Amino acid sequence: MIDPNEPYEVQIAKQAKIIEALINRAERAHEVGGSAYSLFESAIALQAKVWEKTKDLEEALDTLGRASSELEIAYKTQERIQRNLADAMVAMEGGFALFSEDRLQVCNAQFRELLPDIEPLIKPGLEFDDYLAAVNTSKYLNPDENGVLGRAQLLMSGQRPGRRFSSFVMVLRNDRWFQFSCRLTSSGNIAVLQTEVTDIVRENRREKNRLIDQQAHFLHAAFDHMSLGICTFSAESELLIRNERFGQLLGVPLPLLRKGTRFQRIVEHVERHEILDRKGGRSDFAGWFRAVRRGDTVQERFRRRDGMSLDIRIHSLPDDGFIVSVMDVTAETQAAALLEQRVQERTVELTEANRLLQIHADEQRKIEAALRQAKEAAEAAHTSKTRFLAAASHDLLQPINAAKLYLSMLTERVGEPGASEVVSRLNRSFTSIESLLQALLDISRLDSSGAEFNITSFDLGSLLQGVAEDLAPLATEKGIDLRIVPSTRWVTSDQRYLMRCIQNLVVNAIQYTERGRVLVGCRLRRNRVRIEVWDTGIGISQDDQTRIFNEFTRAGGAGKSTGMGLGLSIVERACRHLNHPVRLVSRPGQGSVFSIEVPQAVAGRASACENPTMEPIADGDLDLIVMLVENDADELDAMTQILESWGASVLAASSTAEAAALMQEIGTAPDILLADYQLDDGDNGIETIRTLRALAGVEIPAVIISANRQRDFVRVGEEMSFAVLAKPVQPVRLRALIDWKTRARVA
Prior knowledge:
histidine kinase, seven-stranded mixed sheet, Beta-Lactamase, HATPase_C_sf, Sig_transdc_resp-reg_receiver, phosphoprotein, phosphorelay sensor kinase activity, six-stranded antiparallel sheet, 23 strands, Heat Shock Protein 90
């Protein structure tokens, strides 16, 4: 019935009502009557309830007493804080006021007495905006400072969320200065503090005046001790201030240098006594003044009779006056004259040096012309050497090719073991000669300035497979496991030179490996394909790695049968021209890894004139009519016997005219045409192909056999659809190429 959270006065009132109700109930019960026992029971029950309520009432009174004590303590604490605040405000040197909810709550006497005309308004409850408005209209405020407190009002009332502090300086009429500070407290109240700064302002003013006087003294002292003569004149050309140096330099007496002397009198005195000697006549005084009035600077150079040189300048001033400066430039003039003399002397020296340089340049041009002629002669000799090597290689390859063909036939016909060994050794000797000549020819081509490359896109896997087929017998003979990792990548390069480079690397790997294996594979590095040749050979020392790419150089520890040392030189030259980086990683005794990086290409179709990589066909009858055109009799005979041994019918001719006559004689076109490119009397294999195809009226399958691999030659092969087979001819490749060309025609 009684809520203990309610105020004590309410609880006591409720308890009194409850007690009164119980007493009334007991009296009504006594009046109604009843048995004595029931009345006794009612009295006992009533007494117990009265005791219980009395106990509650006592507890409530005790709680009320404690609350009254705490309230009294709080009142006393508040009074003490207010007295302390009042004492602190009285002790403050400046005025202080506190505005709560934009109304004045408390302030000290200094705050009220600052402006006597608004003192009656300063009472508790005064709004902050009204206070600022009253201050702005106070007659004690300096009129020049009106509106300052208006800005404070705007700041404190309209920008309170962004700015919590503002400070201005008020200037009173009696030259008193007060700093007016407003601060927003965290509870949203405004604390106003008025601090007198009159002493500080006056001290600053005195210090400023002292500094100005001191600076003026310093300026005057510096002005008098300047080496430059200075004199200022008013707008009426009257002298205002000058230093002693001005009169000394111009030779003007002191009476003329008094304040108020006109500038024209000083000029007339100088001209009358001829103190200054000006080249070109008398000074143009009027012209000086016109120039100064326009804001220009007048500068004149004079010379005194004693030889001193003076530089006079006239500058305009903001008040329409002007300032005249006179400078002693004798040292500068003498230095300039000395410098001019030295310049003239130096000019003479430079002229002589220039003449000598011209003579030297003429001699240099003559030397350069001689060097250019020597260079042209060297280039001509180099070109002649290249042509000679190419011609000599071609002439040497002709009999070697014929000898190899004879050896191939002799190998098949000789059955005696001893004769077979002699033929084998003879074959190896010719192979070595062929390799050496081919290497020399490649180096000659790569060293020539006009080296040509046939850059195409082709299947790298087919090229690697061809390398494996060519070098498999060499690896088997030495007992080396040669492995080629298949690849489907296409690359962009010169197919012939790239194949030659890979062959050289694989041959080197086989020659320098006593046992183990040689592995050839590819790795993709972004848009480039890295062709790597791994071996388990003797390795290459660090010193040898820097020189093995030179001609006729072999790694240390190599045997006598490891080649002539030209393979890596060809690789370095060809890859340098093709911009294919070559890398080497090797450890002596463990093996080496050579790699060539080639640009990757999009898969496509190989060119028709490129040599195909094919599986050799099985031995059997070659039931074809073959037109063979070769100007070398031995090679013609050897090639004829090889073709006839394969079962072909051979029409042998030494020129285009003879081949055309043979075809007209038999009355039909041959199944395939094999022609050497370089024939006698300016004739060539391309002309043979054109002539026979024109006579037959059909495109006869053709193969050009030559050592010529120029780009134009390959381009013509693509246009005319003939294949190219390099000399010396390998019979197995010739047989495969004939089969491929004739099968393509049948298809």
